[in-house]
Write a structure and sequence with these properties.
The chain is mostly helical and 419 residues long. Helix content is 39%, strand content 10%.
């Protein structure tokens, strides 16, 4: 290929020691320069081509007329070279594209807004989402919060990092997270699972904000979860499931059903925690058997029926106070997963396939609420001389404003001048 006419070939010289550069448009001093990768196939060096009219650098060519396949930005005044486009990660295959990028860097330098970590490859890699994730995940105590650690690691590595892992954490916007949400919903994934994954991403970005790596947390997209009626069973259904559980395991599930305790709390009970007709709850076990605080971080005492407490005392008789109150066949404390493996087959055998948490804790709360509603209806019926079913007629409509004057009830207060 012949060299273009009206051009002047000048040998490429290294930038001055003081960090200056080549002349840019308008005669302004530019920091940095564009260089070709390697040598020409003929063995020649790449040389700068300048316009005869303005004297600006316009291209790189060999004396044989060939252009370099790739170029890079020599940014040694900033401390490094930039071989790839920071936005796409691809090598510069266009002199014009690299030149425009160099102009932008100089404009930021002149405006005192230049951030070296956005251009220098080594610094850019330090602030990638994947790099910052590797720092964040180790801050979660794996021994104490194993379930949180596993769920966070799974969500980030399977769903979040493949989508935005190579991005700069400072460049992640709501639009990127919206795209991620739509991609997850189309996989398809359950909306509740997508909400959990985005919640993990939100925790990650809040950590970055706490460390002042990013100024603000990107606004997380909202995931609409279809309403699902919460199922529960009555005491008769619970007794049917208990009948299918082996006798050596039955007492722990009787305690779960009567008190509504969390499974981790009942697994953490010790012999000394039962006394004077009450049970002390001050700790819990995670899914691998490690001791942790209760979910609410509080301690409490709960009462049980005399018959159940007598069986608990007989179950703990002759054992040391620090021993687990409920032990499996190996002598160790039960774990939550172990309780699932006992409950699930029994519930299916009873014809009531319900999760252990729903069949014990949630059902206990629903039973108490139903009982209180029935007691309230009966109280209103006794007071007004009606049947309990008529009590619902007098209920306040949902969403109605409460009157500040209890004497006025639902009637509006009289206006000034009214009698």
């Amino acid at each position: 290929m012949n060299a273009a006419p009206n051009i002047q070939l000048l040998p490429l010289s290294p930038p001055p020691a003081h960090g200056g550069g080549i002349s840019g448009a308008g005669g302004m001093e530019m920091t940095g320069t564009i260089r070709g990768v390697g040598k020409c196939a003929c063995g020649g060096k790449w040389e700068i081509i300048r316009s005869e009219v303005t004297g600006d650098q316009t291209d790189l060519r060999c004396r044989c007329g060939q252009r370099p396949r790739y170029v890079f930005i020599d940014a040694r005044p900033w401390g490094d070279r930039i071989p790839n486009d920071p936005k796409t990660g691809k090598k510069w295959d266009s002199y014009l594209g690299a030149w425009k990028f160099l102009i932008r860097m100089n404009d930021e330098k002149d405006a005192h807004t230049f951030d070296r970590s956005r251009y220098v490859p080594a610094k850019m890699k330090e602030l990638q989402v994947a790099t910052e994730y590797s720092k964040w995940i180790v801050t979660i105590d794996r021994k104490q919060f194993r379930s949180r650690y596993d769920s966070s690691k799974n969500a980030m590595e399977k769903y979040i990092l493949p989508a935005i892992g190579k991005m700069d954490v400072r460049d992640v916007r709501r639009s990127h997270l919206d795209d991620l949400k739509e991609k997850l919903l189309s996989m398809p994934r359950d909306p509740s699972s997508v909400k959990t994954y985005l919640g993990v991403a939100g925790a990650f970005f809040r950590w970055l904000e706490y460390r002042e790596t990013i100024p603000t947390v990107p606004k997380m997209p909202k995931v609409d979860i279809p309403y699902k009626e919460t199922g529960w069973i009555n005491r008769k259904g619970q007794e049917a499931i208990l009948a299918k559980i082996a006798s050596r395991h039955r007492i722990i599930f009787e305690l779960l059903i009567e008190t509504g305790m969390r499974q981790g709390e009942v697994c953490a009970l010790r012999v000394r925690d039962i006394a004077d007709g009450e049970i002390y709850i001050g700790r819990a076990l995670d899914c691998i058997g490690k001791v942790k605080d209760t979910k609410a971080g509080r301690t409490r005492y709960i009462s049980v029926s005399n018959a159940l407490f007598a069986r608990l005392e007989a179950h703990a008789r002759g054992r040391f106070g620090e021993e687990p109150l409920f032990r499996n066949k190996t002598g160790a404390a039960y774990k939550s997963r172990g309780l699932w493996s006992i409950w699930n087959p029994a519930s299916k055998a009873a014809g009531l396939p319900i999760a252990p948490r729903t069949g014990t804790r949630h059902s206990r709360a629903s039973q108490l609420r139903r009982r209180r509603e029935q007691e309230t209806d009966q109280m209103i019926a006794d007071q007004l001389g009606n049947t309990p079913a008529m009590a619902k007629v007098y209920g306040r409509p949902k969403g109605e404003e409460k009157c500040t004057n209890s004497v006025l009830g639902n009637f509006p207060a009289p206006q000034s001048g009214e009698k």
